[in-house]
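Memo to structure team: turn this sequence into structure tokens by end of day. - J.P.
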Amino acid sequence: MDPILCLYTRYFWSERKLILVYAKTEKLFESMHRYLRLNAMSICHYSEKQRTAFDELIVSASLSAASQVERDYWGWTLRLPFANWGLFCAVDPEGMVCAKISPLAREAADVLGKVAVQRQIAEAPLRQSMLIPDSESALLTVEQYYRESEQLPARIAMKDGEALMILSMPEGDWEGLETASQAELLAAFHEANEGGSLQKSYEYVFYYDCRCDVKQMHGVVSSLPEAEQDYLWGDEGELHIECPRCGKRYNLMRDEIDS
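Reply from structure team:
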């Protein structure tokens, strides 16, 4: 089945030395809902706070990927402060995006959060950044990653089906943008674009999907120590497992892998 593609456009604001990425996110969410529907999955049972964080992360993560010149893999693992659930989002170089919400131990709600960001360009070492989130917003946590790990300011806006990321180059001019609301950021983008201040530099497409399949899930189990495999399979030789990237459920039979 052909993917539903969502177009992201990267711009350069040369006068202010800023990079901007803009998208209308309707197609990304349409792609996500189709994937969930086809795989009998749903996020409807999650709380409004969880769904908001889920949406913010897949948009912010894909904006981040589109802001880079080189296409690389991004893996975001977030546990927001005092939340007994975690988020994971992966963005592949080809534009594939998927995410998952995972329940955590009840005591996780009593401690501060944690964020791990992994990035890897083909044939290059894996880069990993760690930070403690200072906000309960996934969107603001992505901004914090750029501020602390990349040492460059970034702002992200999501409103009424539009999404925007503004990322600074060294010596970028942030006057009026650092404290602007999300609506004001989007208004500033449209004003600059309509006024001819922005130069379009690249277009990128994203879609919601995952590469997981039964063979891959068997491979995950087979990579474990034998004693741990025996424990997981139990007497029935049957295992129910979720993809760690997207949460798709698989029913595995041990005789399928041993044969």
